[in-house]
Design brief:
Two copies of one chain form a homodimer.
Chain A (H helix, E strand, L loop, with lengths): L9 H13 L1 H7 L5 H9 L3 H10 L2 H8 L4 H10 L2 H10 L2 H8 L4 H9 L3 H12 L5 H4 L6 E2 L5 H10 L9 E5 L5 E6 H6 L6 H4 L7 E2 L4 H10 L4 E5 L5 E6 H20 L11 H28 L1 H6 L2 H4 L1 H25 L1 H37 L2 H31 L9 H25 L1
Parallel strand pairs in A: 1-2, 4-5
Antiparallel strand pairs in A: 2-3, 5-6
Helix pairs in contact in A: 1-2, 5-7, 8-10, 15-16, 17-23, 20-21, 20-22, 20-23, 21-22, 22-23
Chain lengths: 451, 451
């Protein structure tokens, strides 16, 4: 959570703005030399007119490299300010996965309008990519890669690499496909370099290739890339036809998204960490959860209501309601956090339910015992009420043990039932633990009162 | 949080175990063809004797590739079962960053013992790497890379690549350094491939290289690699001397760790998501937080105690303590989750404090109003108490608004003060919001009672 993202400082950005306004030729000379991400940081701070001036200076082909860094809303705005010819030349050069990301949410008419103006190859590629479901491997792969036949010799492939202009971004492998476009293997550029020009690809290619299928979920693709240290994984159809590749930089973005989703699930704030959405839209997403939880909260009111008699005779009991509730909620959420992360990273699958549950329950009993003894001491010191001290202390031990079990099991049940895992989020587990905790607390108090 | 990590199924693992025990030669033939990660998955399920049998079959040089996948505890155990000669040959072949990770936590004596048996080059590299602080770029970089002088021609570098045996893993760039080892630029293998054999590196190298300094924090390195889509970033000293490289696969592991840490901070469960640690150690890490929070929880008891008179006259008020508390806690945690993630991903830095705070407060007021109206209706329906309905409803509006502000501002203050951000974790914000929420609730109740 430390604040360390290296970004251009505002002075540098201001310098470029001034340069653009005062001395266009100096800007035209220096700006193109920047990394596309730096160009993006400068451009996003510019007003509409300044951005327009940049379109005059940067070719649409070069702008394609910058375009991909913008959020989709920003892309739409920029696109709106471009002239028709500029737009199409830029889209033509943009990698297919980035084009898909941009045009996929558009209406059918707008999409067709854009596709109809594309080159035949690009249109064919785009029509293919648009078929795949969101979040599938097909939806994030790109069609730009270099391939060769098993019989091609190294010199031929090198010539092909020289002529290729579509794989704008770094190429690290040549994919070897047979005449049916079936993937045979891949050749790392290093092996291509040290091979003899007359050697055939089939002699030097690595055939134990890890692939992903086009309908695989993007999170699974991320795990495979991670497990096998792959820089660009080939995407194949069910019958092993090479359809595209997914590069590690796209996967990094997906991993970040996944971590943010995990956190959203934990706090029922899913989909609202994007600072670009308005308070009203954020409230609309969060309010249903808060209100649903409030409905559940009415159960806590009923539990307390059921023990009204006990409470009326000892109002002091109500003082410790928050303390017991918080301890149960905190302990349950800790177990939940462990589950959410270990399920995501695959650690859970390695250890299995029983070992995980044993670890968490063991932890809960120990934390409960330590907390119970502490609170007994504290209440004796501050309130001098032996009876109250034991009610709270024993409640803590029991409640905390139960809370770890609920925090561990509930997310597993929910993930097995294939329910939206947001339901397993922290607040639900907290509320459930509250209900159980209050019940334990008042039951013990009532029992001890009757003795 | 979906369960999708692709792993070898237990049947495959069982097949290899049987093969090893019944027909060693079949195992020796098939096992080496697996990916090192698959070999790891099979080996970790083996018992000590079976692992010992594998040492006979797999050369230490090949085993180095598998070794890196194990956790450090598992590595120590495996290492303990290897013979001295096997150990040293394996370490000699293990990439320097992996060797550092393995020997860094050892005592001085054990470290020196291992270093003294290494080759001169490896020992020099290791002594250098061990100087750098944990979590710095220096501590995760590797010394295995291919470099050339600006005057070297392409053919010479290709020869160098052919002879090189240290960069076991994929090489994607050749780093160009001058006679003082200062980094001049880099050449992508693709450019090397399409260049003429007689061209000099300085003619084809890219000089606008993004580097990281050796003392930079690893999280910052991760952000740079992400922002600039770099596959292997050069690590340089303060005076631009090339010291090593950090590859994207190491960065992915760090990103995953960072996300897990974020979640730990959110739930005060930091350092306990590792399922390999025992319940006792997990309890020891978590109990202090739970108990500290319980100490704070005593304040909630005092707040309620301060309003004892009000509570004695209307015991019904205590029924809604959990509901008000939970709503405040949940809303505050949602804002916190937004902050923790947007600070980590750099989104917060883009938008700044006021816009973020405005968004969250706006959301809080709207969620508060919606919740307030809902609870007023529910209490009127279920309890027919107009007075109680308004106390709870107005409390919710005020408490939820305050909760978003606290959830937003507290993590920023704490990150500015450079306090351990675990202190900003969800439970603390929840407890703080509880105290404020209870105070608001009982103040409104007392005021309305007196009218």
């Amino acid at each position: 959570m430390r604040d360390m993202k290296k970004r251009l400082d505002s002075r540098t950005i201001e310098t470029y703005r001034k340069m653009l306004n005062e001395d266009g030729s100096a800007f035209a000379e220096r700006f193109p030399g920047l990394h596309s991400n730096e160009q993006y940081q400068i451009l996003r701070s510019f007003g509409r007119e300044e951005q327009g001036a940049v379109f005059e200076i940067i070719s649409p082909e070069a702008f394609a490299q910058v375009f991909k860094w913008f959020s989709r809303d920003e892309q739409l705005e920029l696109y709106g300010h471009m002239e028709e010819d500029y737009r199409m030349r830029m889209l033509e050069r943009l990698a297919t996965d980035d084009v898909r990301h941009f045009i996929e949410p558009m209406g059918d008419g707008a999409q067709k309008g854009i596709l109809s103006k594309m080159s035949a190859t690009k249109r064919r590629h785009m029509e293919e990519l648009l078929q795949y479901d969101r979040h599938s491997a097909g939806s994030i792969m790109r069609k730009e890669f270099v391939s060769g036949a098993p019989e091609d010799d190294v010199a031929t492939v090198v010539e092909k690499l020289k002529d290729d202009t579509t794989t704008y971004e770094a190429v690290h492998f040549v994919y070897v496909v047979d005449h049916d476009q079936q993937l045979v293997g891949l050749v790392a550029l290093r092996d291509l370099l040290i091979a003899d020009g007359s050697q055939q690809l089939k002699e030097i290619c690595d055939t134990s290739v890890h692939t992903v299928t086009v309908d695989m979920d993007q999170e699974q693709v991320a795990h495979i890339i991670q497990d096998y240290d792959i820089i660009a994984v080939p995407v194949v159809s069910a019958d092993n036809e090479l359809l595209g590749i997914i590069t590690v930089d796209d996967i990094i973005d997906i991993m970040e998204l996944e971590a943010t989703e995990d956190m959203g699930e934990l706090t029922a704030s899913r989909g609202t960490t994007d600072m670009n959405i308005s308070p009203f839209r954020a409230a609309r997403k969060r309010a249903p959860w808060i209100m649903l939880l409030m409905g559940l909260g009415l159960i806590t009111a009923n539990v307390i209501g059921a023990f009204e008699e006990t409470l009326e005779s000892v109002v002091l009991l109500s003082f410790f309601i928050p303390l017991v509730m918080d301890a149960a909620g905190n302990t349950g959420t800790q177990s939940l956090a462990v589950m959410v992360r270990t399920i995501s990273t695959g650690e859970y699958q390695k250890h299995g339910l029983w070992r995980t549950l044993g670890r968490e329950l063991g932890t809960g009993v120990m934390v409960g015992a330590a907390s119970g003894i502490t609170i007994i001491t504290l209440i004796l010191v501050f309130y001098q009420e032996l009876w109250l001290a034991f009610v709270v202390g024993i409640s803590l031990l029991l409640t905390l043990s139960v809370a770890t079990v609920i925090g561990t099991i509930l997310p597993i049940i929910i993930s097995k039932l294939k329910i939206d895992p947001a339901v397993a989020s922290g607040p639900f587990i907290t509320t459930l633990n509250d209900i159980i905790g209050l019940f334990i607390y008042f039951s013990i108090a009532t029992t001890l009162l009757q003795i």
